[in-house]
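# nightly structure sweep
# worker-07 picked up a monomer target from the shared queue
# config: single-sequence mode, recycle default, output format = structure tokens
# input follows
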Amino acid sequence: MKSKALTLVSLLFVLFFSSCEDVVNLDLETGEAKLVVDAEIIWQKGTTGNEQVIKISKMAPYYNNTTPKVSGAQVRIENSTGDIFTFNETEPGIYTCTNFIPVLNTDYKLFVTAEGQSFTATEKLTSVTPIEKVEQKLVPDFGGEDVIELTFYYKDPADQANFYLTDYKSEFLLFPEYELTDDELFNGNEISTRFSDEDMKPGNTVLITHRGISKSFHNYMNLILEVYGGSPFSVPPGNIRGNIVNTSDANNFALGYFRLCESDHVSYLVK
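# output follows
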């Protein structure tokens, strides 16, 4: 909330002086336009998980309003038992598979060939325990005003290390809000995760998507969120390296992270 207050003050400052100041576009350096592979295989509990999508694009200069899509790529995933799942381009930069078979704790390997370069990444499909309930209450914010807080609960499995990624989507959020959790202090117990926003009002619907993730992806997302705050999409992405390796030229790595997550979600109507 403090950051939102600072943003408001900054906006008022800009508006106050806009009548006597010219807009200045900085002459920023343009780096190499790296490939960006958005490869999340997400298996929602209660579904077959057969339809999956991978998006491929390229980095763009800071002032560009569009993201270049990468067409003509060859995309497939193989699992440790030899099954091959082909992703076909259904629209520019969007590659879809309709016969994917998700199997928990199974290794999958991604293969991408794009613009004369070959990329691979390997990850395991990680399970998640279901959301048991969602509660709502009013809590005071830093200014003493009451805001709505949502809390959801789930039972953490014992005798194993677990890592979770949750995102919140709603009409009052410009971008999804993300939150990481691990069970270092809660192994085998009930875990509660809280979310509040000063713009959340009765009548809003909040979609909560709760994922099981690997430790490696947890560490990667932790770096992303430390740099960009609660949403990795609120500012242009930086060169934080994921698990996607260029087998043609190791120095020309792609951005993004190949991850496979079981998920549970709840659509909650704010009262």
